[in-house]
Amino acid sequence: MSFTAIAVDIILNSLVLGGVLLIVAIGLNIIYGLSRVMNLAHGSLYALGAYAGFTLVASGLNYFAALLVAPLLIAVVGLIIERVIIVPVRKRSIVYTLILTYGLMFFLDGLIKYFWGNEPRFIELPQFMRQTLPIAGTHYPVFRLVTLLTTAVAMIGLMLFLGKTKLGIILRAASSIPEMVSCMGINMTFVHAGAFALGCVLAGIAGVISGPLYTIDPIMGHEMLISSFVVIVIGGLGSLRGAVLAAFLIGLVQTLAEFFVTDLAMVIVYMMMALILAFMPRGLLGEGRFE
Amino acid sequence: MAEHEAEKILQIEDLHTYYGRSHIIQGLSMDVNRLEAVSILGRNGVGKTTTLRSILGLTPPRKGKIRINGEDTTRWPPHKVVRKGIGYVPAERHIFPGISVEENLKLAAKPSGEEEAWSMEKVYSHFPVLKTRNRQDGSTLSGGEQQMLAIGRALMGNPVIMLLDEPSQGLAPLLVYEVIQPILLFCLQSGLTLLLVEQNHRMALKVASRHYLMGIKGKVAQTATSDQLMADQDIIKQHLAV
Question: How confident is the model at residue B189 (pLDDT cuts 50, 70, 90)?
């Protein structure tokens, strides 16, 4: 392979990885930014999204239809979770939700093992997605390009939602001054629930698009949870722009590291995190808000 | 009874509010009549802001009763209290960062069918400077402009009573007398009721007709009309002078 082919391959791979990381991390970040809940079960919701996608496609649904339906199912699960375990401890310290969502993570993982078993699953892709596309001397898998496209569509959709719709503006306002939002007659209970559901939709989307990228197994969410933590910590807790920057930075570093020193890839990613935090303790863009 | 009660838009009886363990307001009673402007005057830290926060349900009182339009709203959540027709202008102004002037106003809009109702255009006609900055991030406005936006935003909800927490704080006197005071007087004439918290008694005397002079622990030391306060400067010295 020529040098350009390798470069294109690495760039595309890092964009794909960065995109998936970004969608999971932004979901986590939205929930944290609005409700100050660090949802440790977020990775498991992402896994649940992948399994939902798998089951929907296996029962005959089109892959793209599953990409729309699965995230909504995860949102419903999210709304139930929010009502049952987050709302009762809303006013208490963050430790309560940390412990409760940590327990929830094991509960969801157990549920997944119970219904789908331990063996890895694969989402059946439509014929055209199993092809490769010649780009600059490399043959790039079409499903990876579809993943990239889905990420872009999801991000643009999210930006338009937060930027242009009244609901989106309420979410942004509530992420900075929740008290004033309630003083304008808006019920913060719905805002919190909406933010949680939105975060779950994003986890669900990421789950379905990751299906073809990685194998679907009951613990797929754990590594993703840790990686998305790294993203939001490097980007700055609660900052959406920071998350975008951090996700693609990690995508690039991890892909490069995997190419050159496969076994040390994650070590290098964590070293980068440590270095960034040593010099910028509040992350690249500081603890932020939605913009 | 109903007729007499309905005259009172806000009634507070024996209010006790705490921040954690500190007992900030110890037995406050006061009321505000419809179409009236009332002020709470007092030094820093006597519990003026806490009074407003108690009314709004932001810091719910532990004891006592708050009635709005005759209905007991004690310990209601803020969004429900506000829907009774309250516009709140906090001391910090609380302009949402990253959100444009126009969006700040839009968020608060609660359209009303009435002809005199507040709309974006009406707010802009009173504060033309906001119109010229309508796309700008609200939190990058100057202090005076932010105050106008905070007042405009409260008006967009077409309230029946406005709670204003030190609207003149940190503003140049010129701005206070030429912009803030006129809009408050206009609101009053157009049928709004005002409850004003102030340390700046000069503006409060011109806008409000009745004053609660608050001493420490949120205790009303004295009530007075503007005429009484103007006639007897000693009262002001005693309660407000540093």
Answer: very high
Across the interface, which of B97, B103, B157 has its CB nearest the CB of A169?
B103
B-facing residues of A in 135-174 (CB < 8 A) are: 166, 169-170, 172-173
Q: Average the pLDDT over B204-217 and give the result.
A: 89
Q: CA A58, CA A71: separation in Å to the nearest integer?
A: 16
For the segment B194-203, what is each residue's pLDDT rounded down to a tens digit?
A: 999 998 888 9
Give domain B35-58+75-239's CATH number out of 3.40.50.300, 3.40.50.2300, 3.90.1150.10, 3.30.310.50: 3.40.50.300
Q: B79–A187: do the CB atoms touch at under 8 Å?
A: yes
Average pLDDT, chain A: 92
String of DSSP letters for chain B: -HHHHHTEEEEEEEEEEEETTEEEEEEEEEEEETT-EEEEE--TTSSHHHHHHHHHTSS--SEEEEEETTEE-TT--HHHHHTTTEEEE-TT--PPTTSBHHHHHHHH----SSTT---HHHHHHH-HHHHHTTTSBGGGS-HHHHHHHHHHHHHHT--SEEEEE-TTTTS-HHHIIIIIHHHHHHHHHTT-EEEEEES-HHHHHHH-SEEEEE-GGG-EEEEEEHHHHHH-HHHHHHHT--
B72-86 tens-digit pLDDT? 999 999 999 999 999
pLDDT per position as a tens digit, A148-160 = 999 999 999 999 9
CA dist A170 and A166 (Å) reads 6
For chain A, which residues make up each domain, given as ranges? 12-222
Size of interface A-B (CB pairs under 8 A): 58
Interface of A with B in 177-206 (CB under 8 A): 177, 179-188
pLDDT of residue B239: 79
Does the pLDDT of residue B57 top 60, yes or no? Answer: yes
